[in-house]
Structures are given as C-alpha cells and as structure tokens.
Amino acid sequence: MAEIILVIGSNGQIGTELVTELRRIHNVNQVVACDIRRPDYDTKNAGPFEFVNVLDKENLKQIFTKYKPTQVYLLAALLSATGEQNPKLAWDLNMNGLLNVLDFAIDFGTKRVYWPSSIAVFGPNSPKQQTPQFCTMDPNTVYGISKLAGERWCEYYFQKYGLDVRSIRYPGLISWKAMPGGGTTDYAIHIFHEALKKGSYSSFLSAETELPMMYMDDAIRGTIELMDAPEDKINIRSSYNFGGVNFNPEDLASEIKKHIPDFKLNYTANDPRQKIADSWPKSIDDQVAKKDWNWQPKFDLEKLTYEMLRNLKKS
Ligand code: AKB
C-alpha cells in the first residue's frame, strides 16, 4: 500500500527540512505539508499543503478523512522559551494537540505516528553527564512537563491501543534553512548568522553552558531511520535518548574563529533562558537508540560549523 504521510507543523525548523526529505524519498504527492500558516514557497509546485490547527478537532478530522494517512509526523509545539511566556497555551497545544492526533490515528487506522520529545524532559535532579535513558526526571519548564507527560501518553496509547507511536528526545537542533522558534538552544544558530553579518555575537547563555546539540541533517536522518525501523526493534515507546555533539558557547566560538578569525563573542547577563539551560543535561547517553535501531550521528562540531557557515554564505 502506498504511504500517505501528513507532516503537521510543516513550516517550522524541523518540518521544513523533514518535508523536503520525505518528498525526496517518496512521491511528492504522498507527503502532505500541514500548518496553521501558509508556507513561503509555491505550494502548487512543491506538493500538497493543508491548513491544519491541531487544536481544531473538526479541521483535523476533515484532513484525516480526506487523506487517510498511513503515517503522521506531529511537530506543532511551543518550545521552552516561548512556552514560559505563555504556559497555558504551551500546555494546551503540546498536550491536546498530541491527544487529538493520537485519537484520530486510532479512528482512521494510521499505521505509525511520530512525535518529538526533547532533552527538556530532564530537570535539575537528572544526572548531567551522559544522562541515561531511564533516570530521575523533574522538568521545570512547561515545555519539559508537557513533553514528559506526552511521552507517557505515547507509551499508554501503544500499550492500551497498540498504536505504533515512535519518538526521539531531540537535543538543540542546528540548521540554516529555517530559523528556530523560541528555544533555549537557539543561540547556537543565531551565532552563525551574526558572525557572518556583524563579526560578533552576544550570547544569552554563559560561556561554560554545555548542552547536547545536533546538526539538522543528522536529526532528519535519525528521525526517518527510527520510523523505518522494524517494529520488533522498537523497545522504547516513551521516547529515545538521541545524542549528537556537546558544546558550550566558547567551544562554538573557537570553531567559528577558525573560519572568521576576528569573530568576537560577548555575553548578556540575566537572561531567563540561562536557568532553563542550567536544568538540562550536558551530554546524553543514547546507547539504547544505538542498539535498537543502529543510531549513529555523523556531524561533529567541526563539520557542523563548516556546513553552517558554508550554507549560510550561499543563502
Ligand atoms: C528548546 O531549546 O526548547 C528546544 C529543545 C532542546 O527541545 N531546542
């Protein structure tokens, strides 16, 4: 049976690249981009596009009725920093959006659902180094709380209804095609834009704030590899730890200086995102993903920096 794939939240940082890659792998018309905003490309040439608001059940039902998707990727969410500015909306979108999609996936016989979790599920009492798959989890942002609750719902729907839901705990994702949307790790993208434009950047995270990060090409490849893995290999139905590269703003600046020797990094004090970053892991132990579905990142800090600067210069 031909796959019909819905990508909900298709205009965001991940959606933009995931839709392109899925359309490269499948027939363009098998991948339906869905978002509350019109994309800024010509939808007629690019493939099907639908307006979808995951909180509007009637709208969602119409889309499921029209396409009867075999796979759904649900990416629509409010991230850690914007979530703190509007906690109730973040909870509503991140939680009820997920439950609506899980329910329609069951009603319409969708084979497989992907939903991203995040390193934000960990908190101040989680181990900071090589944070394991299973450990204390006490997230203190509404985003982290919603992701942890969402993980439990995913596992519940798998166990109770047999729905094949798969998930990854993304670290900060570094990309050049679309801007990030209000996360704590966004400094690691802004720094490249400002380095090329102004030769300097003022980081809202302090010099020693080390966080798990990943180049978008790795994240997209890993996501599709997880979705393509045989069902009997998937032992985690909450969400998989997923490791790429770990660095702090100073490490990143040193790497950028190899290409832009005069680059200057300054720091802005007292940004609320610092407290969020301080509660997150510095590195992730992803041996379960490696064992279950052969996860292997390809981009280290050197390669990621080279690719970001090279692509941003061209764009
Ligand atoms: C954020 O910073 O909120 C996201 C994430 C790590 O999930 N990039």
Automatic annotation (TrEMBL):
GO biological process: L-threonine catabolic process
GO MF annotations in UniProt: L-threonine 3-dehydrogenase activity
All residue ranges annotated as the NAD-dependent epimerase/dehydratase domain in the record: 5-234
InterPro entries: Epimerase_deHydtase (IPR001509), NAD(P)-bd_dom_sf (IPR036291), NAD(P)_epim/dehydratase (IPR051225)
SUPFAM superfamilies hit by this protein: NAD(P)-binding Rossmann-fold domains
Gene3D superfamilies, per the entry: NAD(P)-binding Rossmann-like Domain (3.40.50.720)
Official protein name in the record: NAD-dependent epimerase
Gene source species: Pedobacter psychrophilus
